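Hi W.,

Here's what went into the run:
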Amino acid sequence: MDLPVLDHLFALTGALLVGLGLCGFIVLRHPLRQLLAVNVVGAGIFLILGGLGRGGSGTDPFPQALVITGIVVAVALTAFGAAMILRVAAEPAPENRQAGEDAGETR
Amino acid sequence: MTAAFDILLCVMILGTAGAALFLRDPLAAIVFLIVLGNLLGLAWLTLDAVNVALAEIAIGAGVTGVLLILARARLVALGDNVVCEPMPLWARLGAIALCAGFTAVLSCVVLSITPDSGLTARIEALMPRIGIENPVTGVLLAFRAYDTLLETFVLLGALVAVWSLGPDTAWPHPPAALRIFDPGLRSVAGAFGRVLLPMALVMAAYLVWAGSDLPGGAFQAGTVFAGGLLLAAIGGAIGLPRADSPALRLVLVLGPLVFLMIGLAGAVLGRFLLFPDGTAKMLIVTIEYALAASIAVTLALLVAGSPATPDKQD
Amino acid sequence: MSPIDLLVVTPLAFMILAILAGNRANWLVPAIMPVMAGLSVWLVLLPHDAAHVVGGWELPLGILLRADGIARLMVPATTVCFLAVGLYARSELLPGPGGGSARSQTFWPMMYLMWAGTNAGFLTTDLFNLYVAIEMVSLAAVAMAALGSLQAALRYFLIALVGSLAYLMGVALLFANYDTVDTTLLAGIGRPDLATRFALAVMTAGLLIKTALFPLHGWLPPAHAAAPAPASALLSAIVVKLGFVILVRLWFEAFPESAGSAVMHLLGGMGALAVLYGSAQAMRQDRLKPLVAYSTVAQIGYLFLAFPLVAGAQHPSGAWAGMMLHGVAHMLAKAAMFLAAGLMLKAAHGDRIADLVGLARAMPITVTAFGLAAVSLMGLPPSGGFTAKFLLLHAAIEQGAAIYAAVLVIGGLMAAIYLFRPLAVAFSGSDMPAVETGAPLRAAAPLALAVIAIALGFAGAAAVDLLVAASPWANEAHSPPEAVQ
Amino acid sequence: MTWLDYAVIVLLFTGVFFYAAGSLGLVRFPDASSRLHALTKADNVGLGLVALATALHWGSPAIAAKIFAVWLFAIMAAGMTAQLLARTAKDDDEARDPP
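Here's what came out:
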């Protein structure tokens, strides 16, 4: 089996993951599901980076390190996003408290 | 044979991703995201990237999965059942067409780039100067230590940001308890947590130590210990700390602080983050142990969430 | 030791100190002021093109930090803004009698994180390092926006996340294509192939989302208008500028060959529409902070309207100086305006423009600051805004770009109309409303910022010389990109 | 191929068979307790066999020890989750139709 596409197999899978995740982000209307979709897009980007860094002498450690950094940043942002979604859900009252919004906010 | 395995793996990855995105039941979707994370870990193993595989399974599947399951459970408790209103058909078709077009172009772009080992040779040539064997740790903590330094502050900042979201009445109380309330369930989970916590500590220490020469490192180790902490908290073996506890804050900033101090010591000697010859390994391992401790506590508290008003607990 | 590192390390160290200090974190502001001011001066005094790799690891593995012209300009300007905002926030976020609130403890680490992130972004030449810097800034920015409106912050967060991922995808493709993510290396080897074009397209789209250029601006007005005044000031003045600076680096420094005239005019056209749309929306607002927020949408437009003028000029130094000066003038004036607006709204009984009646008598210093900031934003002489718009207009006329010239003039007129309204109301009325006078430092902060924005205009010639010396074309023989002609 | 290789192959296939049987049970059995019954028992046997096969294949005591640790953790986690699932399922059933 030496189809040329096999060299690109994981990178192409990554590209399709990005596409799927993007589609999910647009179609899903709940922020938690969108957060999940963003994670899928991120995983796809990482897989592109890894798949294209694999050549004759192994997988390049450089993109591997970038991916690990990316995964950690992604989980930090996911945690913050989830906390924010929970807070928005806990306060369903619309946020347009009109008068003195700013004055009240910062005290 | 391997090609067949790779293709099967990629098909499973895409199928799982589809399920994680488009299943109607949110809990099932999150479970499929966890499965996706594990399959991606396998893909990274296939690519000989064991460090990434560990990070992907521990963080991408493990922590993210727990985080989303917990968020969903709390949303359901608030009366939001996390089900999306379906979009009108034309909008869905439009979105699908748009993404299909985008994916097609992206695939062409990916195919136009020849995979190569890139900087592998350069990195191998420089590794003897650091005195460790794992090239990924070398990139993370020597060549690109500056990225990693900033990233640890992103993690710390995320926790402070999560704290800032708590309602005014909640500060500085601990997050809503993670522990199981049913006494029978809790006794099982608690016993498990008590057994696992020391084991997780040992394993984390080993992962950092091994990380200089074998796959592993501060992030993977921190995540493993964070998992132990979370299980212990779920079983009620440990409680969650208050946000203003000085001891907690000291642990949280320990890793970034040690990293920053060692970087500044290098600056005094000539360059920020310079490791003098012969000391690189010692300094890297020091940084990694401090980082692993901070990362473990930070990740566990990120999962636990914002401070909660006390009367809502129990 | 070099200020290039310390400008990032110092805010990070203060972030740690702020976390450890808890309720006493506001005492750190006076401590960081002289340090950062000194480091900024040191940065400006560095020899031209001072640069070094972190830890002594050479490119392409290491990360190159560099004090180029843009950094020399933007870092001191952000320092001034952060210092003023820090002083303002210090008196606003004093912990109450019953101990601190979450806000008074978490604002400071977030502010220092944002500060470190912007400085890291201005000083690095590495595209992946920039990604981490962008995330530092975005995280802090969303957390600050969430102090005002959680819903607006959540929307901002999700959109910013997509923007970051688009940028990250571009970085991934560039690395796979060139085995480096350093702009100085890419500048030598960039080739206009499919992968590069696509990477540039997605990165630009992602950064435009973060910079809120029309029509990707939807998240900005609610988030910036609802946040507390110091947060709004940082968001509007500084956060959106980081994306702009990265775009400038990308198009004019790393890939000048790819900067075809079609791309430049696309960005310029979006910028022109942003000026008109943002101004029109600002004119329709009847509340003060949304007005100022829509003014940001309009003012960002000028930054991108300048792209085709810089790319198309025979001697891009004039247009370049105009673009950069506008960035700095807007940064200072907008920070001043949001801080002044915060004080005015605290004194007034509502958040509508009509509620500002008589404030000019009650709080003359604050209204003066608002007025001076407005002068710079309108582009009236003498002000930094005027010099910037004059340089841009000059370049547009020289190139026969009638549409851009017309937008520059019309945008200035519209700004005059929408900014005159709150001022006219503040000066109207005969009786003086009773206003509690806050800490004097709080009123001084916006005034100082506005005065510096005006002073940029007086120092016009010197500033322009500095900016021309700072352009990527200053030292090199090569003229602007040849693709554009 | 030595006898060891044959042993490894036999162990692997038996292990995979148990996994397949467990998964089939998970899909086909009607209620939570019988599904758990299929999954936990069959999968633990499958895991043990696969772990044994891997240890034999590598033939190094150090690696065998690590694989043993992996097996131990997996068994512990499976045991605990099965307990939790079973108790929760029982509570749910009792809540749905009280005895």
